[in-house]
Design a protein that fits this description.
The protein is α+β, with helices and mostly antiparallel strands. It is built from 14 helices and ten strands. Helices cover 48% and strands 15% of the residues. The strands form three sheets. It has a five-stranded antiparallel beta sheet with strand order 8-7-6-5-9. Strands 1-3-2 form a three-stranded antiparallel beta sheet. A two-stranded antiparallel ribbon has the order 4-10. Helix 1 runs antiparallel to helix 3. The protein starts with 9 loop residues before the first helix and ends in a 10-residue tail after the last helix.
């Protein structure tokens, strides 16, 4: 009776890969040396060596065999991943390898997974990233040091920065106070107020600011019951756009590239836009 194929874990497959590579090195006479003394002690007389990366030395006659053998091992590993490991499992492993949950950088993880699953997209990686972040929150046994408002409002990567050292305590206290002051309701200036101040943008107050390298969100209110931010969004470069609308708070705080401006000073929307984009928005009326 044929034995049923055993399901392997990522660790099993990687261990098998390392054993195959070690056997390949031994068979082809490949070794590592980081000094002249190490090289002299390991080399074989009459053999010419070629230096590769990280101190690896390959007998010149075996370079082609090494390339072919190594590529075959990598291809076998990828086939094993496809057979035994789901796309989401491989994404989670890649996120761990590149410490993405701490850095917020997902590009390297995407590239690693695409070498096995070319169909993988950034949307797939971001979906698993958000699941992992939620699971880590639920697994924490000790209470967070940040006040409740900051735990909800500040992006996760920046939260770790804030709790990392006591010198940030003053920043934490100030941010908590400022976030509490964000109104829950939409700002609805009267026609008289708009007329007195010059424009609607002059009447709207920006209480917080989120940003990426190409997008700004100027926060006008926070519906705490539904976690919805009324904001004015400005995109520039390839993402050029500007609009007044709503966004879910979690869409900003869980996005790996979005940051909160810790040193934002409350000001009118007109002033905020003019300071950042003087060529695109008029100078405030007053």
């Amino acid at each position: 009776m044929e034995e049923k194929s055993k399901i392997k874990s990522i660790a099993n497959i990687k261990q098998e890969e390392q054993e195959k590579i070690s056997n390949l090195f031994e068979t082809l006479g490949i070794f590592f040396a980081f000094s002249k003394e190490q090289f002299e002690s390991k080399k074989k007389e009459g053999v010419e060596y070629v230096a590769a990366d990280a101190g690896m030395l390959i007998p010149k006659d075996n370079v082609e065999k090494f390339v072919q053998g190594f590529e075959a091992i990598i291809a076998e590993t990828k086939e094993q991943f496809k057979k035994h490991i789901s796309l989401d499992e491989l994404i989670a492993d890649a996120l761990n390898n590149h410490e993405a949950c701490y850095t917020g950088e997902l590009d390297d993880s995407l590239e690693e997974v695409q070498s096995t699953f070319p169909e993988c997209t950034m949307e797939d990686v971001f979906r698993v990233y958000r699941i992992k972040m939620k699971e880590e929150d639920e697994e924490e046994s000790e209470p967070r040091l940040l006040p409740g408002n900051l735990r909800k409002f500040v992006p996760r990567v920046q939260q770790m920065f804030l709790v990392d050292a006591k010198e940030h305590d003053d920043v934490i206290e100030r941010l908590d106070s400022e976030i509490q002051q964000i109104p829950s309701d939409y700002q609805c200036p009267s026609e008289l107020e708009i007329k007195q101040k010059g424009s609607r943008f002059d009447t709207l107050t920006v209480y917080a600011h989120f940003f990426t390298s190409s997008i700004d969100w100027y926060i006008l209110s926070w519906d705490r019951e539904n976690d919805i931010l009324n904001n004015y969004m400005v995109g520039y470069g390839e993402n050029y756009m500007n609009s007044l609308g709503d966004a879910f708070l979690t869409d900003l705080t869980t996005h790996p590239q979005v940051q909160m401006d810790f040193y934002w000073k409350r000001k009118s929307l007109a002033q905020a836009l003019y300071e950042k984009y003087p060529d695109d928005f008029p100078k405030p009326s007053k």
